[in-house]
Every structure is written in C-alpha cells, then in structure tokens.
Amino acid sequence: MGDSTPDLEAIASRFELPAAVTSVTPLGNGNVNDTYRVETASGDRFVLQRLNTLVFPEPELVMRNLQVLSAHALRRPVPAQRWEVPRVINQRHTNQPWVRADGQFWRLISFIDDAVTLEAITHPHQAREVGRGLGLFHQLLSDLPADQLADTLPGFHITPTYLASYEQALQSTQLKLCGQGSWCAAFVEQRRNLAKVLETAKAEGRLGLRPIHGDPKVNNVMLCASSGTAVSLVDLDTVKPGLVHYDIGDCLRSACNPLGEEAQSQEAIHFDLDLCRAVLEGYLGAARDSLSDTDLDHIFDAARVISFELGLRFFSDHLAGDVYFRTQRPGHNLDRAVVQFKLTESIEAQEQDIRAIVESLR
Questions:
Q1: What pTM was estimated for this model as a whole?
Q2: Is 169 in a helix, a strand, or coil?
Q3: Which fold has domain 8-111?
Q4: What is the CATH number of domain 124-360?
Q5: Per-residue pLDDT tens digits for 193-203
Q6: How far apart are CA 255 and CA 122, in angstroms?
C-alpha cells in the first residue's frame, strides 16, 4: 500500500469538513481497508479509509455505488425511528468523493454516532435487531434497479466459482491431506451439488438480482448504544447486484453460531434455532413486503449454502498456502473451514425446524 507513512491529517483536511481536523486515530479491526476516526474542532466525527486496491481494483466504482445508495436513501427514507446510511464526503472545492495521495486511494464518510457493534450475539434481542438491520437495508433498496450498481467484485458470492477455485487448489496443493483435511475434502465431495442451488434458481428465473450488501455479518450492523436497536449497516464496499439470499444466509450464519468463526470446541458448534427465529423475526418484520413466497422458500437453502461457501473459501485458502485470509498460526484456515462445515451439518440436521420457523413467519 506504500512504503511511507501518510500524513493522515493532511489527507483528511482535503475533504469538505465543518472545522479543522484535531486528531486521526485507528478505528476497528478490518481485514481489507485501513480505517481511521477523524475528530474535528466542531465536535463532528468522520471515518477516513484507505481502500485496498488489490481487493478493489476499480475503487471509483465502489465510490459510485456508495453515491447511488446514498442518493436513493435520501429519496426514500426508511420507516424507522432512526436509520442512517453512511454519507460520502466530497473533496473541498470539487465534487470528487475521493483523494489520491502517493498512489493510494482515500475516502471520507460520515460517522455513526452513539452506536456500537457486536462481535458475537449473546441474546435473542440482539439477533432480532441484527436481522432487522439487514431487513431495513433490503427494504430501502427494494425499488433500486440492480443495474444501477456496478459489480465491484465479479464472482463474489457466486458459490460455483468457489467450488471451481477449490478444485484447482486441491489439484495444485503440495499438502498431504489427513485428519481434518481429509474430512473436509470428503465433506465437499458429498455436497458438490449444493454449490449450485441458488445459482440454478437464479438461472431458472425463480430468484432475481437485486442490490445486496454482500457482507452483512453481525459486526457490520450498528446498534444504538442506549436502546440496542439497529441504526445502520456499514462496510458498504461490497454493495453490488446479487441474490439477497446470500445476504440472508450470511446474516444467519454469523448470528446463529454462538461459538463464532474461531470456535475452539468444534464438536460443540451448532446452529441455534432460537437465534434463527429472532433474526428472521427482525428481518421479515422489516423486509417481508419486498420478498416473494419463492424467496421465502429458499431461506433454508441460503443458510446452508453460505456456510458451505465460506468453508470452501477457508479450505481453499489453506490448500493454497494461506494467501487470502489473514492467519495467526499454521492450520488456522483449516480450523476455520471445519467450523463452517460443522455449522453446515447442524443446519442440515435441523432443516425441518428451520423451514417451520420460516413458515410461521410468512
């Protein structure tokens, strides 16, 4: 991303701010972009980010999507007591919503005040609000034509492409599969047809492309610090045309696994039905009007497919030598893959219960 340390205050000051910059400090623990909180003399706060152009090779398209989303949100407010869409801040004296400095790409967006994020769900109320946050987001975008958004990550959340990448990694790997590796390979082989379930439904016209968030995991839903209600969905770089089912499935996968992606006790991993009901109550309470009966029919598939997809991605990266996901130790991505595959097993074992929850909420 560059060898020299950037002058963060100078970069932030190039944007249209209400007052002088007083401090710039690191914010969050994201794996893709470098993120900072900007404090100003007026007390207003903003988020400064350096976009990772290796992940997003066309960052201008990312910014255009954010502008389209923000403009649409202003025209169509969500019927909620409080709901905020991060606002893009332009450069001073220009309408350009980014700054290029020393070959790096920077943007500034509004800060969501009096709000927090969770790393894990500890109560059904939290799960309900996480689901409601995604539902409000989908409802907000339900009348935005998908073709107004650029596909900033071609192939992202197209599960058959991850299966193809896995097959290539399996053929090329120098690793000898044994133990957990052998178990994962057998798991994938038994579920090859699962990868195409949602894409087949799309090809047959049963599911259609819509604007999606792309990464609605638990810690991307911001909750009001005092009331605990959902107030925003952040990390919007992955907004693109897609199937809302990838969002629904990812939200369920993230919220309904009490032990989390880094679970140490893999045999104890389970998909929690109480949390599932709470997520779907919140989600459908906000977004039901934008969904068809066919959409509801595929919610179970969404949860199962997305857990399988993430397991595929972790396992493929393990086989390729840990080139994509950051790891803390050898075998980390293999352990992560096992967690997702165990979660997939738990979802499969509770298919009738999950479908019954969806049916009760129609």
A1: 0.92
A2: helix
A3: Phosphorylase Kinase; domain 1 (3.30.200)
A4: 3.90.1200.10
A5: 999 999 999 99
A6: 9
